[in-house]
Amino acid sequence: MKILYLSDHGPYKTTFIRQDVEKISNIHNTLYIAFETDSNYAYKKIKTLLIKYPSYSIKSKIRWRFENLFNYFNWSDKKFSLALSQEINKFNPDIIHCQFAYESAKLLHNFKTDTPIVINFRGYGASYKLNNKNYVNWLSQTLRQKNIFPIFVSQSLLDNLNKKKIIPLNKGIILHTGIDTEKFVRKNYIKNNITSFIQVSNFNSKKGQKVTIEAFKKATTNNPKFNARLIFVGNGKYFNDCKKIVETLKLNSKVLFLGNLNQSEIINQMENATVFVHHSITAPNGDQEGIPNSVIEAMAMELPILSTFHSGIPEAVEHNVNGLLCEENDVETYSKQMIEISKWELLKINRNKVLNKFNIDSHIKKLANYYQEILNGN
Questions:
Q1: In a domain, 185, yes or no
Q2: Looking at the whole model, is its pTM more than 0.85?
């Protein structure tokens, strides 16, 4: 089977895409085309090709502004179309897999084909972009084409599309992200006298770090004997803002910012942690998560989860079973839950749930079977 993958930033931007395509590449002939960047990576196994979309041209900037102001939606470009068509025809794939729904327009507006096309819905394209009427109309028409096959990373994102009556009945599958449970496994149990909360994520408007800091302040202020620390791993747009909030609240001695870490360093930090926190919130523009990978990885490490009733998170974290959930931006409840969950032990049931529902091997098998079913016409 020859499989073509497409996205703006190639397979090495995100772990969950890289590990999927690497494992599929061990079975099938693959090519990955990136539209924006093809990141360097130390162990590059995937054959990649950069066909740059003119995103920073004057025409594209005007198009983007029109899209945001007037619901305009058209990403056709003659020069890009020609280059893209030449490479796709040269590879001659059996299946094309677009990793993000919104980015799939760069393919579908510039390349006509009867080849089966899989479109992944991961968050942005099934939440915020649904505010654009022309995008919704285009998506509705696209998903009714016989050669288009959707994948949803969570039931909640499928529900978003169903509310807009975009998805034809019984079309597509729900395929949760798979986690490499051989890498994310607890090898040591380090019992500390201090409760260590950890979050691993980018600092953006969906990740809720500011709310977590506010709740942590309230929890430690209202409970002077509560011996706890808060650790953030990652970087991003709101990194410096969060550091300033910590300084203002005089939490410098209790809140640590570790920046970006590699996978082995993250696993080491999780082995030293007590609770994994991830206060996911709906961004001001309506953008939502699917199910954060870091939550699943933390569950594989047996950590209790403190999070929110946001998007697909309750599909992984059952309240009072795998952790505690609260409503988005509910600082009062969140702070009380920090005290409550600090008394929990490690949860083997969390790892068992990941093994049963989010295992990478099962995930890849289901994905490969979906490709085959599509080609078989089932």
A1: no
A2: yes
